[in-house]
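dude i think i finally got it to work??
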Amino acid sequence: MRPQYRLSLPGASEISHRKRNWPFTILIAVGTSVGYVTAVLVSTLLLATDVSSSYPIWRNVGLLSLLAFGTVGVPVALFGRYRLLSPLGLLLAIVLFWHGLVHVTSWPSTGEAVPPFLFVFLLAPLYLAAYGILAGIERWIRSR
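look at this
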């Protein structure tokens, strides 16, 4: 028997795992994506003093939020809706690899145009394909 997961929100009724709807799941995924983009941009601005962009900030945040939804939001949505863990595991590996690369190596040297953690965003289509493959395999294994 599958366990019933319950989520209690202040001022809201309990939402069981089976009754959770897509708009709520998408809202959580979008919030997680925007939060990740905010954390990355704030940490970049705090760590680097010579950050500049030729585009307006709203355009950068909008594009990064869209790409972050592909990288961060999709695994969160898959977990929230179907309780799939393999896309979350891949997300954790992706984030730890690219952000760890910033701290372990000296790749983002002065004058470097692209910091390594930007690949968390830029390779979103590749990550979406990998999430889909892993989610399909996990669902197939669970259905057997």
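The chain has five helices and two strands.
im so relieved honestly
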